């Protein structure tokens, strides 16, 4: 082993983000890496310091160099933590121990082992875990936490509602839900999920769109957008429980979750609704599971499925995956599903320079003032949608 490598362990940005979450107190009661006895206790009970914690918080990085270093690390030895070829912190070893990788995967995924997500998590697990006091530098989380604390103090907010969203894409039903929840809180925190893997709709585009919605159609002073790194920690059926812990530690008093959210595990017994949140103990946050909104052709408006008296055959559903499929095909979704401005932002970003002669197409098809001006693809999509909405000639 190369001498300068013997006191270094290598992690990726997902692990760095997870370490920073704990360092900033956002996964409390976890305040540091867990040792072997703590791991075994959490594995058995799903409880840590009298609060729900579905999987042990461990650092067990994969890779030959990490295996060589950790297998020989002694107690109180200080190791540098390296991410993307930069030293981002250090850890003073308290304990190094072997882990059962299958059991670790099972706890991380909440038992959901046969998915693509589980395979990705499996590949990043090493043979050894290290515990001990550590310090890492990851300014993104520190800054967002500070900005939210300042806003809570500024508005003296007591009732703070958290919403976890991927906004992929954000549609009319999302907007209705946000407006309804804004009525009952002093401040709303939208946690915009930020994955580390490539995505059809990049985070920067989703953030831009969500900010546009907040600025133009919501009470923007009552809304704060917080990026939340969607790391391997938030995998499988543990995701909901850990999201509630993060929201609470950011200062939220309530977390709003859509009834059709993945991994919610809803079922009914004797007309009583149950979910994974039935297992939540010691986390002082109210959980609200909201019924999905649909467009009812008889009510002529967006309604909650739980209150509309008309059957499903009168309902248009707001299925994010299906709307996203239209966008992947380059098709403008109907404005009843999404705002035309949002569709235009998405398509003009994902399919730049799509039209060979945009200026001619624009002035041949859509109404204009008669003055030739340079037009963007985004403007063209908006005008095209407006033509779709015009009544047919009879």
Folded structure, characterized:
There is one protein chain. The longest helix has 16 residues, at 139-154. The mean pLDDT is 89. The chain is α/β, with parallel strands linked by helices. It has a five-stranded parallel sheet, sandwiched between helices. Strands 1-4-5-6 form a four-stranded mixed sheet. A three-stranded antiparallel sheet has the order 15-14-16, covered by helices on one side. A hairpin with a 2-residue loop joins β2 (47-48) and β3. It has helices at residues 13-23, 36-45, 64-70, 101-109, 116-123, 139-154, 172-182, 203-217, 239-250, 320-328, 340-350, 358-365, 377-389, and strands at residues 8-11, 47-48, 51-52, 78-83, 86-98, 128-136, 160-165, 187-195, 223-230, 254-258, 267-269, 272-274, 286-290, 293-296, 301-304, 315-317. It has 13 helices and 16 strands.
């Amino acid at each position: 082993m190369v001498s300068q490598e013997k006191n270094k362990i290598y992690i990726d940005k997902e692990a760095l983000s997870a370490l920073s979450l704990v360092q900033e107190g956002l996964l409390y009661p976890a305040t540091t890496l867990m040792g072997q006895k703590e791991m075994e206790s959490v594995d058995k009970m799903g409880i840590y310091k009298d609060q729900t914690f579905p999987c042990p918080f461990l650092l067990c990085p994969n890779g030959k160099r990490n295996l060589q270093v950790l297998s020989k690390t002694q107690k109180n030895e200080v190791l540098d933590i390296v991410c993307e070829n930069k030293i981002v912190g250090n850890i003073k070893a308290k304990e190094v121990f072997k882990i059962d990788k299958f059991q670790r995967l099972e706890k991380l995924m909440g038992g959901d082992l046969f998915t693509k997500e589980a395979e990705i998590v499996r590949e990043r697990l090493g043979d050894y875990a290290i515990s001990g006091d550590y310090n890492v530098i990851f300014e993104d989380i520190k800054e967002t936490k500070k900005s939210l604390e300042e806003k809570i103090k500024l508005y003296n907010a007591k009732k703070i509602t958290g919403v976890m969203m991927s906004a992929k894409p954000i549609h009319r039903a999302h907007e209705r839900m946000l407006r309804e929840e804004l009525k009952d809180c002093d401040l709303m925190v939208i946690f915009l999920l930020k994955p580390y893997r490539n995505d059809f709709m990049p985070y920067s585009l989703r953030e831009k769109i969500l900010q546009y919605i907040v600025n133009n159609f919501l009470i923007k002073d009552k809304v704060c957008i917080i990026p939340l790194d969607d790391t391997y920690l938030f995998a499988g059926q543990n995701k909901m429980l850990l999201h509630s812990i993060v929201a609470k530690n950011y200062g939220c008093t309530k977390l709003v979750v859509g009834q059709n959210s993945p991994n919610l595990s809803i079922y009914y017994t004797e007309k009583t609704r149950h979910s994974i949140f039935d297992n939540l103990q010691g986390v002082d946050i109210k959980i609200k599971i909201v019924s999905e909104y649909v467009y009812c052709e008889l009510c002529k408006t967006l309604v909650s499925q739980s209150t509309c008296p008309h059957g499903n055959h009168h309902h248009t559903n707001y299925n994010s995956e299906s709307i996203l499929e239209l966008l992947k095909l380059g098709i403008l979704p109907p404005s009843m599903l999404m705002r035309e401005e949002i569709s235009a932002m998405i398509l003009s970003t994902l399919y730049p320079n799509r039209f060979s002669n945009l200026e001619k197409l624009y002035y041949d098809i859509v109404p204009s003032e008669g003055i030739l001006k340079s037009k963007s693809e985004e403007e063209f999509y908006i005008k095209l949608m407006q033509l779709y909405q015009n009544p047919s000639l009879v």
